[in-house]
Amino acid sequence: MNRGPGLGMPSAPGRTLLAAHSTAAPEWVCDGCGADWPCPAWTAAPMDAARRADLLPEFTRLTRQAIRDLRGRPGGPQPPEIVRRFLWFLPLTDEEARAVALRLR
Question: Rounded to 5, what percent of the chain is helix, strand, coil?
Answer without folding.
Answer: 50, 5, 45
